[in-house]
Amino acid sequence: MPNIFTLVGVCIGLTSIKFAFDGRFEMAVIAIIIAGIIDGLDGRIARLIGGASKVGKELDSLTDVISFGVAPAFIMYFFIMKDLGRVGWLISLIYVLCVTLRLARFNITSNEDSSWRDHFFEGIPSPAGGILVLMPLIYRFSEIQFVNVNYNLVVPSLFLIISALLISKIPTYSLKKIVVRRSTTIFLLFSIILFFGLLLIYTFNTIFIASLIYLLVIPISSIHYLSLKKKFLTQFDDKDDHEDIL
User: Fold this and answer.
1) Dihedral, CA atoms, 31, 37, 43, 49, nearest 10 degrees?
2) Contact at 8 Å (CB) between 40 and 88?
3) Enclosing domain of residue 175
4) CATH number of the domain enclosing 138
5) Comparing C-alpha atoms, which of 82, 74, 70, 85 is closest to residue 25?
6) Which of 53, 83, 169, 205 would you call most buried, defined as having the most Cβ atoms within 10 angstroms of its Cβ?
């Protein structure tokens, strides 16, 4: 069952390329968003029904390469990068390679023993990267028009920045193992319903603002990670000191 969701995500990701090829960029962006939602659901469904498997894990990674690597690269290439000629194609290739490397590293590190580090990713996850590189296009379709954008400059620059963040070791929050208290469950459900409601009514505005917030949270997650690491190392040193005394 979870693998079916994953395969549907592949089809939607490939369909977004077809939309971009036809010049229907709004539909292409929406397809990537739907693929991102499916990507967030299939893993949780697999864990809930006990259907997680190595095949599903590898399939999920291959899907991410297509839906959040290849598809966004093609969308932005057809949108503006083709005007840059060979440089535009080279930058697109660099982005796809970084998504692939990021997923390869994730598959290796996810086999390690669980610890407090599980609440963080190394670098930004590929679904987030796939949406972030679409931000100039999302901005164009949104009602938030506060500056004139030079797409020939902004798009390649954003591609390179996101590519670097994908393969970096900058810690970013992971929501996969978040623990929610029962007393706050109702507020979480309300927030999720509100977000999806805004997503349906103000699609591009909501996606653009959410993407900006995500970028702003990255430094916060790094500070939080360093704080937890320092606390963990302090406790470990204290434990060693006690063992030496005994």
Assistant:
1) -110
2) no
3) 2-245
4) 1.20.120.1760
5) 74
6) 205
